[in-house]
Amino acid sequence: MFWAIGVFLLLLIALLIPILAIVLDSPIARNFFRGSDAADINELVRRIQALENDVENLGRALEAHREETQFVQRLLEGPDRDESSAKQSRASES
């Protein structure tokens, strides 16, 4: 019975060694142990602000494209509406 527990513990330790090595070698663990630098934080703040500006610019561009598309759609539908309303008015006069 004791030998089974010993074998189990030996296998558990043997499996935990590579798992621990993978976890400790991850970027998250390296940053945790190294600590955060003020320069890294300032760089992240600058990049986030740049991304926010880009998102705002994209939103404005998207709204402009939406307005242009609606304008073109109204132009394309316009002649059909005029012809159909003229036909209806001629039919009602007859």
Give the overall shape: elongated
H/E element order:
HHH
Count of DSSP helices? 3
Flag low-confidence runs: none
Summarize the structure.
The protein is mainly alpha-helical. Helices cover 93% and strands 0% of the residues.
Please describe what this structure looks like:
With 94 residues, this protein is mainly alpha-helical. The chain is 93% helix and 0% strand. The protein is built from three helices and no strands. The longest helix has 56 residues, at 38-93. The termini are far apart.
Key traits:
94 residues; 3 helices
Draw up the topology in text.
Elements: H1 2-24, H2 27-34, H3 38-93
